[in-house]
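1st attempt posting a full record on here, be nice pls
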Amino acid sequence: MKSDLKIGLALSGGGARGISHLGVLKGLNEVGIFPNQVSGTSAGAIVGAMYCQGYQPEEILKIILDTNYFKFMKPAISWTGLLKMTSVESLFKLYLKDNDFGKLQIPLTVTATDIKKGKTVYFSQGELIPAVMSSACIPGMFEPIIIGNKHLVDGGILNNLPVEPHEGTCDYVIGVSCNHLPEESNIKNMKNLIERSVIMMMNHNVYSRRDKCDYFIESPGLGKIGVFDLKKAPELYKAGYDEVRRFIDENPSILELKNE
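the predicted structure (as tokens):
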């Protein structure tokens, strides 16, 4: 069945856990479901930008596996962050060569947080790379990105599942989250406590928007994986793929969204 319905896809942030989005995209594409527009926060913005540029999920995974990210990181001499997010700009330019929302094959919206005004900012036109960098700018880790008069940090602070760009423009919205927390009976140390608390806050942000999704896909237990644990990229990719295949089996109505 080929559908003329317009499908919006919202991808959450979650650091390395966002690699699972690639597995979800692979599984959806395999059954003929392709988004007509994409939105993303942080890692979801990066995955979304690459996918909307035209890269296949497997290609993006290979780029992640082949890249030494640490050589692009440079320390910041500033009280606002440990690292310069702008030092990663050269890496983005390797793969997002047009640096223009208008040149993407699929329309994309990314979110960031205006830290001074305490508001979510949406980008869907103009320069692509600064918007994606601001969406993934973890507060305290990276210096804020300045665009115009806005000081921007990670979009996940206020909106970690940006379904709003699809409201009124799409017939169906698929939300994908990558931060599901397993039950934890033993909090071992302060680091574990802080990390779990942050993810819980992020998930509250996500779950408050869950009802706005017609389909919500969340791989179980990914919250136990560290935000920078890129060594687990293959495991994360497989987790996303396995979950979407399971989801399709249990929710066959999603196949009515086939558009190819």
